[in-house]
Specification:
Layout lengths: L6 E6 L7 H12 L4 E6 L7 H11 L7 E6 L10 E6 L2 E6 L5 H6 L2 E6 L16 H14 L9 E2 L14 E2 L3 E9 L5 E6 L8 E5 L2 E6 L10 E5 L4 E6 L4 H4 L7 E6 L6
Parallel strand pairs: 1-2, 1-3, 3-5, 12-13
Antiparallel strand pairs: 4-5, 4-6, 6-7, 8-9, 9-10, 9-15, 10-14, 11-12, 11-15, 13-14
Helix pairs in contact: 1-4
């Protein structure tokens, strides 16, 4: 149960205005200055575990095996929530046990998990109650990426006890597939919770607000300023505006609904 890549990723809601991200990287370098550190993002909206979950889930498959992913969006910092490290068949996760990891865990086999109780691998024996990213998660992730065995980091935990987020799932009815918006990117693209597989080979329209949209291949399949439905690079059905902002244009937000409806005749 050792990482062999020497590669660490960071995902937080810290932004870049303050020193927090730099300090976390400094702690990692203090453990092992030879580790490679890649920033996934530090622009998760503050305390938004659901958005962090989505970003980590979609980034995870694009990294080498044994990469250590440190993810810290932690509104419960200093409370009784657990700090954990998880080993998957293809990598490692270090994070608060608040559901942030549930997207990745739902798509990958978990080999083992520990609660981070061994303070020998912390930055401080008595960590700050407000900055566990610095004092626990960063040093533990660095030690893990340097070859420390997962079991040395703390006590094993029951995998069924890991926290999962209770997020809406798409619903299949006799007449439609009903879903909702699970993520909005910086372009204002509305990414639904309906996967590409739901399109199958049927003649499907995407119903959103008063619009019924054919599923296109690219943003440029419609004129500038028009709304388009397509499958994004992440594999989810997405609503966008060509060279515009769909969230603003359609006045939609996280949780807003949409449907896939089957039509008997090709749209003309």
């Amino acid at each position: 149960m050792r990482s062999k890549t020497g590669l660490v990723t960071l995902l937080t809601d810290f932004g870049t205005q303050d020193e927090y991200v730099g300090v976390v990287k400094g702690v990692i370098a203090t453990v092992n200055p030879n580790l490679q550190v890649i920033d996934l993002t530090h622009q998760i909206p503050p305390q938004d575990i659901e958005q962090a979950r989505f970003c980590l889930m979609n980034a995870y498959p694009y990294f080498p095996e044994d990469t250590v992913h440190i993810a810290v969006v932690d509104p419960g910092v200093g409370s009784q929530r657990r700090a954990i490290a998880v080993q998957l068949e293809s990598g490692f996760l270090v994070a608060p046990d608040n559901g942030l990891l549930s997207g990745v865990i739902g798509q990958n086999k978990v080999v083992g998990a520990v609660e981070l109780t061994n303070s020998d691998y912390w930055h401080l024996k008595r960590p700050s109650n407000t900055f566990h990213a610095r004092d626990i998660f960063a040093p533990v992730g660095a030690h893990l990426a340097s070859g420390v065995n997962l079991k040395q980091l703390g006590k094993q935990i029951d995998l069924t006890s890991l926290v999962e987020l209770d997020l809406p799932q798409y619903i299949v009815t006799d007449t439609a597939i009903q879903g909702c918006i699970q993520y909005i990117d910086r372009f204002g693209n509305l990414i639904s919770n309906i996967p590409q597989k739901c399109l199958e080979e049927k003649n499907i329209l995407v119903k959103v607000k008063e619009l019924k949209l054919k599923v296109s291949n690219t943003y440029n399949d419609v004129n500038i300023g028009e709304v388009v439905a397509l499958v994004g690079s992440h594999g989810w059905i997405e609503i966008a505006v060509n060279s515009g902002n769909a969230a603003l244009n359609l006045n939609m937000k996280l949780g807003s609904t949409l449907e896939l409806i089957e039509v008997n005749e090709p749209d003309r």
